[in-house]
Amino acid sequence: MPPPGGFEAIKYKRNLPLRGPSGLVILGGVTAVCAYGFYRLGKGNLEKRELQREKVWSRIHLVPLLLAEGDRDAYRRQQAALEREREIMKDVPGWEISRLQIPLILTESPNEAPKST
Amino acid sequence: MSRYLDPEESTKPYKDPTPLPADVPKVKELGVTSAPLKSAAFFLGAFCKDYNEDFMLCKAENRDSAHCLKEGRRVTRCAQDLITKLRENCLSEFEKHWNCLEYNNQEYYHCRKDERELNKCVFEKLGLTKTIPGAPAGKTPIHEVKNPVFTGVQK
């Protein structure tokens, strides 16, 4: 005999809990994150170029100063070497000091024809 | 030649055994290390433009070290002048900026805050501006960008 009020309803429906955002939402989210990332990357690349330019120019501005200082020292060393040679070779007859009197830095400037000597 | 003598501990002042020939006028070397030089580089380029260009044109004529001594002395004197003026007018900002560079791998982008203060002071006192040649026209120069991608810990 059935209980009073009848049997309870048969549970036949599937019971699935909520499984999170849908695939479309995830796909959209990933796309958005990637787009933002690439935007930052592009911006960063442009910025990196400018930073490099800044660094290069900061060095270019210092070239004359450092070169001038180095030249003075090179000239001093060259003169000292000539003086030493003169002192050492003073007893050798017919010795030419001029052997060393070549420019200390032998690089030719690009906008100049090579010297004939 | 067997014992190392620390020049710092020497009691006698250093004497150059081979000084410059007497006919070359003396000029005091700048004696500034890399970080202050980097900090002042753009002002140096603006302040000493004529002397620097003159020197580089002379070097283009002839690379011999004896050829451009006169122009070189002018370049060094000009740089001396600028560093002295910087130190007279913007000592605290200058020192702050180059110390920041010193502690941050000598990269400008770590030290924008100090740099802006220095640039402002130098512009007010000496009238020099930092301009980067070849930067795209119409855009904010890199040293004035408000929210850069590359920053240090300190903005």
Automatic annotation (TrEMBL), chain A:
Its main location: mitochondrion. Complex I functions in the transfer of electrons from NADH to the respiratory chain. Accessory subunit of the mitochondrial membrane respiratory chain NADH dehydrogenase (Complex I), that is believed not to be involved in catalysis. The chain crosses the membrane at residues 20-39. It is found in: Mitochondrion inner membrane. InterPro entries: GRIM-19. It holds the Pfam family GRIM-19. Keywords: Coiled coil, Electron transport, Membrane, Mitochondrion, Mitochondrion inner membrane, Respiratory chain, Transmembrane, Transmembrane helix, Transport. Belongs to the complex I NDUFA13 subunit family. GO terms for cellular component: mitochondrial inner membrane; respiratory chain complex I. It is a single-pass membrane protein. Residues 65-92 form a coiled coil. This is NADH dehydrogenase [ubiquinone] 1 alpha subcomplex subunit 13. It comes from the Eukaryota.
From TrEMBL, chain B:
Transmembrane segments: none annotated. Accessory subunit of the mitochondrial membrane respiratory chain NADH dehydrogenase (Complex I), that is believed not to be involved in catalysis. Complex I functions in the transfer of electrons from NADH to the respiratory chain. The immediate electron acceptor for the enzyme is believed to be ubiquinone. The keyword Transcription does not apply. It is found in: Mitochondrion inner membrane. Belongs to the complex I NDUFA8 subunit family. It comes from the Eukaryota. GO terms for cellular component: mitochondrial inner membrane. The keyword 4Fe-4S does not apply. Keywords: Disulfide bond, Electron transport, Membrane, Mitochondrion, Mitochondrion inner membrane, Repeat, Respiratory chain, Transport. Residues 1-20 are annotated as: Disordered. It comes from Ganoderma sinense ZZ0214-1. GO terms for biological process: mitochondrial electron transport, NADH to ubiquinone. This is NADH-ubiquinone oxidoreductase. Its main location: mitochondrion. InterPro entries: NDUFA8. Residues 1-15 have a biased composition (Basic and acidic residues).
